[in-house]
Design a protein that fits this description.
Helix content: 55-70%
Shape: globular
Strand content: under 5%
Number of domains: 3
Distance between the termini: 133 Å
Strand order of the largest sheet: 1-2
Radius of gyration: 33 Å
Oligomer: single chain
Order of helices and strands: HHHHHHHHEEHHHH
Structural class: mainly alpha
Number of helices: 12
Largest sheet: 2 strands, antiparallel
């Protein structure tokens, strides 16, 4: 009895174990894990693919956001005139610098990005703002070239090539197609190159470049206005109360003038935009001033203004220093965190003050 009971218990114990083993080795038992493994592999593949795409976009964005290096305006002019087989004449170095600066917008690493609709150009905003700052300076100098530098007086006719170049550079900077901004800017560059060929041709007296103090002063007036605006916009990175000076010198504009205080501050998401616009403007202006320093050398020496131009160039060179921070910081003026906009505003303001002094020297001598 004792043995049968033991065998019976063992039988009762063995039956569930055998059933579990048979269930374990059934085909449908392995089907579910196989499906789960495939789904997990697909999910992980999608995650890895998305992460790889994000890394690729980030790296490509960093690559195309690298600003072009400074170039030597004298060497650029010499190489260009040697290629053309023409002598360097007054105005050649300024014209070649305009061509080089404008061409850099289109031919730099990543190309022209301000009108990009696809990634990675559509993801970055620092470089498009840098491009706009450069473009504004090209527009200003091309306007003065057309209206002042290429004309002996106000009643003389405008240069036929500069009539094409000046409005070409003023085409909207974000047009993607019909026509694209790049095509208009290339036509403007080609017109500027045609002007250079005529200017350096000794048998073609039609193209001229007049290195007079009043012509230089006309361009510097535009530069002064641009830098003053950039300085104010950069300083607005920190909230401050300011007096509304819009009607400060016009007593007829308001019958009852009222002094108003305004709270001015740049939105946090636009701080880096203004910073890189100012950096691009300073980059272009730095090269243009170096070219002007050569073409207007006699005028500047005669007015004792050569040192003033050199000081402006030094201040603008400081704006091109390497940025060690991965982002543009917007700390308080005297806080624990740096404020890159205020540093840029300091250099821009000092350059603008030197331009005001330079204009005074050109007017009075």
């Amino acid at each position: 009895m004792h043995v049968r009971t033991h065998e019976g218990r063992q039988g009762r114990i063995e039956m569930p174990l055998l059933q579990k083993l048979r269930d374990f080795f059934r085909r449908d038992t392995f089907a579910a894990p196989t499906l789960d493994w495939r789904a997990s592999l697909l999910r992980n593949g999608i995650i890895v693919g998305v992460l790889a795409l994000l890394v690729l976009i980030t790296v490509s964005s960093l690559v195309i956001s690298n600003e072009p290096d400074l170039f030597n305006v004298r060497a650029n002019n010499q190489a260009r005139m040697t290629t053309l087989g023409r002598p360097s004449v007054p105005g050649a170095i300024t014209t070649n610098t305009i061509i080089k600066v404008a061409s850099t917008l289109l031919d730099k690493r990543g190309g022209y990005l301000s009108n990009d609709l696809m990634s990675p150009g559509a993801w970055v905003d620092n470089m498009p703002n840098w491009e706009f700052g450069v473009l504004v300076q090209v527009r200003d100098i091309s306007k003065v070239m057309r209206e002042n530098l290429s004309r002996s007086q106000s009643q003389s006719k405008e240069d036929e090539d500069l009539i094409i170049a000046e409005p070409g550079f003023n085409f909207p900077n974000d047009s993607w197609i019909f026509p694209a901004s790049e095509s208009q800017y290339r036509e403007a560059i080609e017109a500027m190159e045609a002007y250079l060929l005529r200017l350096s041709d000794p048998e073609d007296p039609d193209a001229q470049f007049f290195t007079r103090a009043d012509n230089l002063n006309a361009w510097l007036g535009n530069v002064e206005s641009r830098l003053g605006s950039l300085s104010q916009r950069l300083s607005a990175s920190v909230a401050r109360e300011r007096i509304d000076s819009g009607l400060a010198e016009d007593i007829t504009a308001n019958a009852t003038p009222v002094m108003r205080e305004l709270m001015v501050q740049t939105p946090w998401h636009q701080t880096d935009d203004i910073f890189y616009e100012a950096r691009g403007a300073a980059w272009a202006l730095l090269h243009l001033l170096r070219a002007i320093q050569v073409d207007f050398h006699d005028v500047l020496v005669n007015k004792n203004a050569d040192v003033s131009v050199e000081q402006i160039i030094r201040e603008l060179e400081a704006t091109q220093s390497f940025i060690y921070s991965p982002i543009i910081l917007n700390g308080d003026g005297f806080g624990y965190i740096a404020n890159h906009s205020l540093v840029m505003a300091s250099y821009i303001s000092r350059a603008n003050a030197a331009i005001i002094d330079l204009r005074s020297l050109l007017q009075q001598g």
